Each structure stands twice: as C-alpha cells, then as structure tokens.
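[audit] Reproducing an earlier prediction to check determinism. Same input, same settings, fresh worker. If the tokens differ from the archived copy the diff job will pick it up downstream; this log only records the rerun itself.
[audit] input (340 residues):
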Amino acid sequence: MKYVLSIETSCDDTSVAIVNEDRVVSCCLVASQDLVHSPFGGVVPEIASRNHTAQILPLIEQAMTQTQTQWSDLLGVAVTSRPGLVGSLIVGLMTAKTLSLAKGLPFLGVHHIEGHIMAPFLVDGTYQGPNFYDQDFLALVVSGGHTQLYHVEGFGHYQVLGQTIDDAAGEAFDKFAKMLGLPYPGGVEVDKRAALGDPRSFAFPKPLLHDDTYNFSFSGLKSAAQRLIEKMSSAEKSERLNDLCASYQATIVEVLSKKLDRALRATKVKNFVVSGGVSANSGLRKAVEEIAAHHHLNLALPPLRYCTDNAAMIGLAGLLRLQKGETSNQDLAPLPRAAL
C-alpha cells in the first residue's frame, strides 16, 4: 500500500495529512490560527505565514510518527500551490519541494478548489465517501473566498456554470458577524444564533436569484444588512440578534440552494456535491439534503472536519493526479489567483 503526504497552507490553518491509495485518511492534523487572528476580526497574512513556518515541520513529523509511515511508503508529496495568500502558499510549497529533493520523491502542486471538490470522496473510520468522482456530477464550492458552481465531467474536467461576481458567501457571513460584534470566525457564530431565531423576521435582498445565469452576488446583501444594523440601537440589536442571523442565513441559503436546484434540473445530472467551509452551515446542509431527496439524487456532503481547509482533500486530489503520472517541477511558483 502506498500513501501520499499532503500539505495545506493556503490561508491561515496549517494542515498535514496522509492518505492511502484507497482514499482512506490515515491521519489529518490541523493547527488552527483562529485565536491568533481573532483580535483583528480576520486573517492577517503576515501573521498567518509566520505561524505556518512554526507549525509545518512539527506537524509533518507528528503525522509520520502517528501513522508509523516510512518515507519509502510514500508515492509522493502533494501541496496546495494555488490560489491563496501568497506568503502562506510559499511556506507549504517550499516545504514540499525540499522534502521532494531530500527524500527523492515526486511532488505535485494541487489547486485548492480541486481539493474542496474531492473532499466529499474521502474515506476514514467514521465516514465512507462515495466513488462517483470519476463520473458526471455537479459541485457547489462555497467558502470564505470562493463561491462557484461546476459541472464536473469526471476528475480533472471542470466547467464553470456560475460563480460569484463580487464577494463569496463565506465572506458575507463573516462580515455580517463582524457588524454584529460576534466572535471570529463569524460564520460559525451566525449559524449558532440562526438556530435560535425566526428566518422570516427580516426581508433581505436576494441578489441574482431570478436572473437567467448561475452566478452569485453577495455585496448588495452585505450593504443592505449594514444599513439595517446601523439604524438599530444597541438594545434592539441585542434583542433581535438571533432573528437577524436567522434571516440573513436563510437568504444566503435560499440563493445558493435555488441556483443549485436549477442547475441540477437543467443538466439532469444525478450526482452532486457541496463542499467548502460554508458547507458546514446547518441551514445549507438541510437545504441541499432536501433537494437530493426531492429529486432522488445522490448527494455527497463532507463531514464537518473536511469542510474547512484541510490537507486530506489535497492528498486525495494529489493522489489521483500522481496515479496518472502527473508531477510538478521544482520551478513551480505559488499563484494567489488561479482559475480551476
């Protein structure tokens, strides 16, 4: 049995994983930086890259020791090389290149979004992902930096059906939380509050909901929310906090789920996945599960541990490409922006 050592440092979390040829995750370690960035209400790139530098080698050593994996057991090293914060990407990429040279292993730069698309297909002790990754399926990737809908014609073949024309859904959640003074990371806090509120309390705009594309837009929603909140007193904001979160979350979920539903009807695809950090949102998970049940479709939702940035998803994407004979050269450079 061969394994892939994988590294993910595209933003703030440092992650290392070992994935085998059967898509099974031997281990996936994540060093979160939430507490470090919390005072700033968002990720500070310079701090993120410094923390990656401190965390990456101890995590690799821990992963190899914990799984009793030898360097000779590895098929190669996979690493996120695009897109992301350039300083953060450099740390992971240089580490992978150095290990490749030192251990005589091939390495492969992986697109971060391809990793998210592959996340629902991972397998571990408590989760058995499906195996339709090499068939026809739709993929909705929703995170802090990305909101895109793809038609996947088998692994490695992606057609963009729609994408955000401004802000990502995850950013819209986090900025809304910041307006309300909720702790960082904000999307998680909005979800918790939304469960206690009435989603019909406030009517927020639903950008591009009825247009004839599969594109998304959330900047207008953020602006409308800010205007509403600025008109409210501190007491009123506190009293209506749960209702605000429930209404705002329901708006984003409706836009995402209805666009996805339309795309599934139009393409007649029988399989679909929803992934990325926002796929952990309880409202979105419920909505897409209802779509799958209503249309009798196969839905793959990653468990929460594989929704946010993690090295296991990079390992699976890297594994599948390494098995096809693909490798990267030592001159591979990080790209902060790169289409899939």
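[audit] rerun output stored. Observation attached for the diff report: The domain at 3-127+306-323 is CATH 3.30.420.40 (Nucleotidyltransferase; domain 5).
[audit] end
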